[in-house]
From TrEMBL:
UniProt keyword list: Glycosidase, Hydrolase
SUPFAM superfamilies per the UniProt record, alphabetical: Arabinanase/levansucrase/invertase (SSF75005)
Protein name in the entry: Glycosyl hydrolase family 43
GO molecular function, a single term: hydrolase activity, hydrolyzing O-glycosyl compounds
Native source species: Pedobacter frigiditerrae
Family: Belongs to the glycosyl hydrolase 43 family.
Entry-linked InterPro entries: Glyco_hydro_43, Glyco_hydro_beta-prop_sf
Length: 474
């Protein structure tokens, strides 16, 4: 749905907040992850969920650094920008809160900080962090920046970046570093601003607005073509992102249509960055998108990272690759070979508690919206995953994974709502030592929903959980 004005959240149900506060999040140290899995909570080295949205990645020496918005489950107030590092792009180590909430001021308590991007200035060797700064009601937006000598921070917040002495009063933003090291700030609508050599101010408006929508601006270059991706304005609801191409940043920009098949809502995500994974044999261009989940943006918002396909017709993400591998030395990617066993929802070993409807329309599912109703499955193996038929009236599923002594290893809430139905993996445990475990999934009685400042409501209409199937690795 295309909405002409910026869509911003205003409220969320308070009972959700209090219910969540009672839940300890994680109690488990993560195992090694063997691929990029979209749409699932990821765990860092401490077993905590990776919270880095509106993100970007930069490579520094032999590591990739992921910067993104830290979130809470209670409000949209800025809680800092997190930094993680990885060598393989699968396992993320929490490094630091690269920019914490400031004691006061524009990124102090009860403010908004979004879409953080970091670039290294090649001349000074300093790291520059750019971000959208705002009030909680989105009434004081500008592009801010912070600097650090070390990639992981701490970054010093410098306030707004200036162009002719004035702030850039835009909300959604991004960055792009061209091959010659020149840095650019992108803002919604497709405006491109050139940074000064020292990255501390803006010296030119390289490109004027392309379209009135075009949020989450994401730009990358392959060869001599620039690709500019953005979303429609639907707050945290997903929509069909689209893109333009040009051979110069100043345009002209040619509209090239949708990035993913129509009505797939960009595989339920909103763009934020494209990482070029350059290797000895190939370069994989990895689309990075956010699958937002308001109000549980800490626990339940996830990442959609997919390889981009190039053809004469342009770029595309033609299929949702649930899991894929990328060799960071050669730059080549491949779909992950599946070595899993499927447990259908009708399997007699799944124990259902309470009333569940067992439906078989196009897909066989078991559904319930009654809080506390649950199903559980005990298995021997090293990993378990959950596929949900995600639907517009679905809510958050409460997941608990225990060992055979009943000790809780993972506890999490996962979002099973989508505006348009899709069967998708919503949870995958870390890889565990081979043993007996029990997965219990219950109806939490919570659902993602929110409204924007025009009081347009978004999100789910009910609390259903719909089990399509479980998968296990033995
Ligand atoms: C989106 C935007 C996000 C966030 C959200 C708030 O459109 O891309 O970064 O600002 O709105 O509603």
């Amino acid at each position: 749905m295309l909405i002409q004005n910026p869509i911003r959240f205003i409220s969320a149900a308070l009972f959700v907040v209090s219910a969540i506060l009672n839940l300890p999040l994680y109690a488990q140290k993560a195992g090694k992850t063997d691929a990029i899995y979209s749409g699932l909570p990821w765990y860092d080295q401490n077993g905590k969920v990776v919270s880095a949205h509106g993100a970007n990645i930069i490579k520094d020496k032999d590591k990739y650094y992921l910067f993104g918005e830290a979130h809470s489950d209670t409000s949209n107030a800025f809680v800092g920008f997190n930094c993680y590092s990885s060598k393989d792009l699968y396992n993320w180590k929490f490094e630091s809160i690269a920019l914490p909430v400031q004691a006061s001021g524009k990124l102090g308590p009860n403010r908004v900080g979004e879409r953080v991007k970091v670039m290294r200035n090649q001349k000074s060797g300093q790291y520059f962090m750019y971000m959208h700064v705002d009030t909680l009601g989105y009434k004081d937006q500008f592009v801010g920046y912070a600097t650090s000598k070390n990639i992981t921070g701490p970054y010093q917040f410098k306030g707004s970046i200036l162009f002719n002495g004035k702030p850039i009063k835009k909300w959604d933003m991004g960055t792009f570093q061209d091959k010659d090291g020149t840095g650019y700030i992108l803002t919604h609508g497709g405006v491109i601003h050139q940074l000064a050599d020292d990255y501390k101010s803006i010296i030119a408006e390289t490109n004027k607005q392309i379209s009135s929508g075009f949020e989450s601006p994401t730009l990358f270059r392959k060869g001599n073509t620039y690709y500019f991706i953005g979303s429609n304005l639907t707050s945290w609801e997903k929509n069909d992102n689209y893109y333009y191409t040009a051979t110069a940043l100043s345009g002209p920009w040619t509209s090239r249509g949708l990035l993913a098949p129509k009505d797939k809502l960009t595989w339920n995500s909103q763009s934020t960055f494209v990482l070029a994974i350059e290797g000895s044999k190939d370069t994989t261009y990895m689309y990075m998108g956010d699958r937002w989940s308001y109000p549980l943006q800490l626990s339940s918002a996830t990442y959609v990272w997919q390889p981009i396909t190039f053809s004469a017709g342009g770029i595309s993400i033609p299929d949702y690759i649930q899991s894929w591998t990328v060799n960071t030395s050669t730059g080549e990617y491949a779909s992950k070979k599946s070595d899993i066993k499927v447990i259908e929802n009708t399997n007699k070993l799944i124990k259902y508690k309470g009333n569940w409807k067992h439906l078989s329309d196009s897909i066989s599912t078991s559904r319930s919206a009654t809080r506390g109703n649950a199903f559980s499955f005990t298995f021997k193996g090293i990993q378990i995953g959950l596929y949900s038929l995600s639907l517009p009236d679905n809510g958050y599923a409460a997941i608990i994974l225990t060992d055979k002594k009943g000790k809780i290893l993972v506890k999490n809430l996962v979002d099973t709502y989508t505006k348009l139905p899709s069967s998708t993996m919503v949870f995958l445990s870390p890889i565990l030592p081979k043993d007996e475990y029990t997965l219990t999934v219950s109806v939490s009685g919570l659902k993602p929903n929110w409204s924007d400042k025009k009081k347009t409501n978004y999100g789910s209409t009910d609390y259903n959980i719909s089990l399509d199937k479980l998968i296990i690795k033995e």
